[in-house]
Amino acid sequence: MNLLVTGGCGFIGSNFVRQRLTEAGSPLGKLVNLDKLTYAGNPANLADLAGDPRYVFVHGDIGDSALVARLFADHAIDAIANFAAETHVDRSIDSPEPFIQTNVVGTLRLLNCARRHWSKLPEPRKSAFRFLHVSTDEVYGTLAPGEAPWHEDCPYEPNSPYAASKAASDHLVRAYHHTFGLPVLTTNCSNNYGPYLFPEKVIPLMILNALEGKPLPVYGDGQQIRDWLYVEDHTAAIWLVLQRGRPGETYNIGGLNERRNLDLVKTICALLDEKSPRADGRSYATLITFVQDRPGHDRRYAIDSSKIRRELGWAPRENFDTGIAKTVDWYLAHREWTADITARKYARERLGVAKS
Prior knowledge:
The protein has a domain at 3-192 and 228-256 and 299-320: Rossmann fold. The protein has 13 helices and twelve strands. It has helices spanning 11-22, 65-74, 89-94, 97-119, 125-128, 161-180, 202-211, 231-244, 261-275, 306-312, 320-333, 335-342, 345-350; strands at residues 3-6, 31-35, 55-59, 79-82, 130-136, 184-189, 191-193, 216-219, 225-230, 250-253, 258-260, 288-291.
């Protein structure tokens, strides 16, 4: 399989690329990673894999149809995993337009290129071709406490510009299957966490702020609930769907680990108290600070993963306790990576600015 991965230098994408290139027995010919390298795309995430002869990195935009068409042709692409997206809710509230441009227009152009490429393939390559679109549980809206988790047939009710842009892209993917026959697959996941998660996201933000003695900002009353999925479990599920999923189908992927935001932060504090205690002996939990809630903040997310379990035999390997401990350990061991990110060192280097 020659695989095109879009957004492969981001958090989930880079974990997927790493898993595919390092896992024994992966049926890969070539893996082409197309990434625009926005603020969340960091080539350092995959720097150690640059020498792998199967790996090709291309700096570019999924909205650049000429470039994407050339990649399909030059590398004889057999499948695409589309991770490329703007994903941060707070940023979408501040400025929705980049989310529409990347998540909607970019996905549309990617679909157009994939359709043209697929339509010209000879059999059996045409039948084997797949377009996998990675989406989010946020397209479903919000759940009340005690309400059943979302399954694949739940209606879409997005509540943020980010969620609305992903919902639109999901609908486009579905339409290209039903209208043109393009063999697509869609996955909707719960909140991911693990190595290489961008530092402005809640888990690394809390870890890094705590280590620096800064306040740990918790929105509102901290009672919002999220289902947490360890990123390597997610990427393994995506690979399984890409290989064995039924074209035209959607698969929900959840971690089965619902946690209140405040409890999540307290868990991180307890792990840091054990692994990297403060010099004054006080708990990191004393840094917790409640701040004004985010506009339109969804109260609860939860995913029903029974379909992917039933059809493809997938189940997460990590529970929340093991996954969050691994995540804290990773950030403690990779302080230079996080320092580079927070200082935007890699961005300055891409622009040719001298290192500070």
